[in-house]
Queue: 2 jobs
Job 1
Amino acid sequence: MTCERMAKGESLLHLADPRVKIIAALVLSLELVFLECLLALIIALLCAILMLLITDIDKRLLAKRLAIVNVFLVFLWLVIPISTPGDSIFRWGPLNITDRGVFLCTLITVKCNAIVMFNIALLSTSSIFSLAHALDHLKVPPVLVQLFFFSWRYLHVLEEEYARIKRAALLRGFQPGSNLLTYKTYANILGTLFVRSYDRGQRVYWAMVCRGFNGTFWLLSHFELKPRDFFLILWTLVLASSLIFLQWSMNCH
Amino acid sequence: MHISEGILSVPVLTAGALVTVTGLAIGIKRVKPADIPKVALLTAAFFVASLIHVPIGPSNAHLVLNGLLGVLLGWAAFPAIFIGLLLQAVLFQFGGLTTLGVNTANIAIPGIFFGLLARRFMSLDRPVFSAVLAGIAGGLSILGSGLLVAMSLGLSGDSFSLVSKIIFTAHVPIAVIEALVTGFIIRFLMKVKPEIIGLTFESRQPLARHMTAVTTLLFALVLVLLPTRASCHRVNVFAWFDGDKVTGTAYFSSGRPAVASKLLVRNLETGKEFELTTGSKGEFSFVPEGPGKYEIELYAGEGHKATTAVLVKPSTEGTGALDKKKPLFAASADPPLSHQDVAQGGPSNDTGAVQCKDIGKVVDRILAKRLEPIKAELQRLAMAQNRVTVKDVVAGLGYIVGIMGIWAYISSRKGG
């Protein structure tokens, strides 16, 4: 799978402390949800693009991810301009496109893309392992952190397992279509996957118990805040407060 | 299935986050250290299942399997679904951090509810019946999720009403596929590895005590979600007629003025419409084209809407036909309607029409100045009445606690 491809890199954001990145991502995402001022959101979007440029992630991969995010927004663009009351901009038969609807769609599109870009720049630039490690340091309940880590650890194993079973089915002439046989076959493939993952989970647990596992994950390495982390904290604070100030001073909503 | 970032309103996101935190707290308590690898592997399987696209007619859809997770994991499905969605958000930007709460609640609650309900009647000696039951639970879970997703969107603003209807409709065919696949998977597991499901040969499985908690949580979710728009999204508009023009203000229930918002004024008699924009303090005014009833509609963005009506009585200026019997304060006692009569408490009409008009104008000006504070006071009072106060919030919480209490009482009686 191509899951963690964005996490490879040597940029400033790749090297930053994951704890700081998680908190910065949370602060910026939550703040953008509250913002209702188009100007502030556009500035946030530009800052997010700037941060993405710093990360130097493969542009084609980035475009692919953003395209997936925007599929739902395209659907909103098809519906909301018609279903919102307001002044008509363009009328064609029974379809009435309103200024308010178009404005609302623009607002949502900018907001959604800005949040997603911040999250790519801040979260996807860390490996899942270091994120789990950081979550543990941030006092997230240990059960949740362990579930997060284990799920990630076995995701690839199961993905490969699934690909193998699917290949075996295809070799035996399985052709997916809208019929009962297809659904039954998929159910059996998934059932096999569940059985194998259950067995594997049992074996993994026994292996861990043999090595003295008692429910605690010991952390051997600890993070250390470096000057670049303070720079990231400063940047987040300045960005967050100036966006709030902009919304407040423009007095728009 | 899952909603992207930046679309839902803040109250809906908060409600979803609160419900998810509660669900996670309950779910985590039920995961013992020995269960972690099993739950994690089923979470990974859930994640992989969501990458599988199953054909439906000309299109295809990815599986969700929240009903199946509910049957297999019970309450542990809450953290499992949460982790699955978190991984999707970080790895693929499906969903997002801020919507994680709402999305988890929307998917997990129906799954756990119908899953546990179906489990109660499943047993190893009736495999086909059990599989059918699990299938129905799987289908209903998707319908439930679709309903919750539609509700989350619909409650975020009036503009989303059509979108939420379309989204719910799109869930119906998925529910059918999901029911079939869930049923077949349970049938397969019963043949191959029944211990995953953990059923016994009893014809009625013991009803899990936490069933009550799921139901309460579901009710709490609905109760929290339903009033969010009524209380937090309210805009108000007030207007009055003061002799020659209609003035008013528009503000949010927090007391914040609705600045630069569009107003649509409609003359109900002639049907003529025109538009206005509020000023920097949410104020507006216009000169009515003639007597009659005017309807003022306020659009304060993101689907916030409020209406009010103003009655413009026939103006006496110019005609000279003065009605001197109007009481002075009757009009100011009902501010949303007219004030104009105050201006006409002038002397008699002994003098000529021209003189009368002049006196009328002077009196009008003085009275308008004198009445300004009274008007402002009345408006403040009306605003205070409409604002959501701490008292209302406490009352709402008390209401929820009360309903939960009644439910807990009934269920404890049932348990004997």
Job 2
Amino acid sequence: MSIKKALVIARWEFIEKVRKKAFIVSLILMPVFMMVMTIVPSLLMNKAATSTVRIGIIDSTGEIAGRLNASLGEKYKLADGKPNYSVIVVQPGPNAREDANKMVLSGKFSSYVLIDTSIFNTRKFQYVSENVSNFRDIGRLQSAVKDILVSNELLREGVAQKIVADVTKPVDLETVKLSKEGKEEKAEAGSGFVLGYIFMVILAIFVVTSGQLLVRSVVEEKSNRIVEVLLSSSTAEEIMTGKILGLSLLGATQLVVWALVGVSFAGPLAAFVTIPSSVWWEGVFFILGFLFYSSIFVMAGAPVTTEQEAQQATTYVMMLLFLPFVLAALVIQNPNAAYIKILSLIPLLTPTMMAFRIPIQTPDLWELLSGAAILVATTYFCMIAAGRIFRIGILVYGKRPKLGELLRWAREKG
Amino acid sequence: MLSVRDLTKNYLTTRALDGVTFEVKPGEIFGLLGPNGAGKTTTIRISLGIIEPDSGTVLFNGSELSNEMKDSLAYLPEERGLYRKSRVVDVLVYFGGLRNVPPVEAKKRALHWLQRFELSSVANRKVDELSKGMQQKVQFISCLLHEPQLLILDEPFSGLDPVNQIVLKDMIRELKSDGRTIIFSTHQMDQAEKLCDRICLINKGKVVIYGELGEVKRKYGNNSIHMEFEGDSSKLRSLTGVAAMDLYENYAEVRLNDGLSRHEFLRQAVSLVDVTRFTVEEASLNTIFIDAVKSDRSGVENVD
């Protein structure tokens, strides 16, 4: 194989695609999209409210409403010092509920709570609102009411006021992440998850976009028969190597730009993520994953003739790539479960699984090494098979070959 | 220059090539002729190393095609295509690069050839902004940048208007006088007749006619009789000793078997119809082509 020709092809693939509007747009849009997806929601969630939330209360006991107002007003304040919540009493009576409902629907209350006299025994009360997904408000109300009930009981048992106040003070939890090297670092709860997710999404998008570019360029060259000119001047291996090389360069450009954007926004980002020291393993799995999936895309893309067929072929590959997203929830709960470890060693899942797991809890060294080794070996064989399928597939037009035929091609030596 | 020996190639159920053998001499224009599906393109693809034959060899100047040798070949495929979204000059430089022409040199040559073909104004345009004829000329230029020794052109004239056909024909002549060897494949016999030094006619994967153009015409075309007549044309069908007859209402083109003299044929014909004109003419390559393909199909040549 002539490296020189592979480089000529790589250069062409790179320059022609890097100039395309679609590429430039994705280069800019992608980081914006990632920002919007990951940071903006958390920014909004953590942002202090700007106006007082009015909460109605129908308090049949007559003991809770006032103390709830005091407790919420003392704990939660707006930026300008006004209370975050204001508790407004609705007189209990036969029409109280109806009235309160009207207040909520007309927007005068954001919600109201209904406290029955039985609350001291049942420890149950109701929260009524149009939106019952407001976890922050609900959580605060719940803990405030709980504190009131607890102190109420303690006072009734004759415990001193001062002790009661001490007992019901809030508790602060600080999360510290322990790295493999035994270093301790303060970390926002869930930060590993956010970073892992970002890595996994970037890897998946990165592989899919370059894979589709690869398949589409092969299909274009097949349909306009440029492939015959290419094959009359270079070998199939040179063409394939050139294409993969060119696209890797394209991908690298993309990653560098995104990384620069990431660094320049490091300020707001740092609040939510902690970069683990094992982050360079991410690089290893990025490169291996990219090469491995490239060979799969070559195998899927070389034998097809039309754009539609290409779409179908790449869809199957993409489904494999996105499988770890489904497993994400299981991974966070127990990253060390045996089945997670086994799944991480299946080459099709290794790159994304590892990309996700490393920031959450870096897998053991043996796991990283064996994952990488299996991936290297599989990639090697897939590249050889892809080269053979590519050589025959790029001259096949019309009917899509069956899987059996592809396997036969893969076994045929050049 | 190029020596093709005993090529066979089978696709699943069909035999695409069956013992194809021919030789292309340096500096000549060689016509690879044949009807659609005869195996011309397969022969070309094997010669260029794009596909492998089942058996047989292809030698360039006595040795097998190496990757370095590929740089002195040029190939214009039958179905045309360029990168539609790329600039003309970039595509040309790329194709030059594929044959190891350094970018700077490739660009210089590309601009030179674009000027020769009166395409300088579109050098920086995108390919898909060009007319079909222009694209075809650009593609032809892509075959010239690396100054190849051997050019293989598959149906180079198809889709060109008469003016551009002349431009291309002159260019091919010029390349020949530069000492380059040209193989061109076509089923347009008039073009082949005007350009080729030697031809090879392939039908159903086999070489049917092969040799120097004049010789082929003498050998296969000397018995062609053009006859005008009045009377019942169907009576002529009963004539014996006829190898092939193209019969119309008052006109017939006839090729005789070797055993029958023209004199004897005329005597028979006169007894059946009123002959008004009788000439012996050298058959055109077109007639030879049709004859050969037809008789191959009906098997007449073998029966005799």
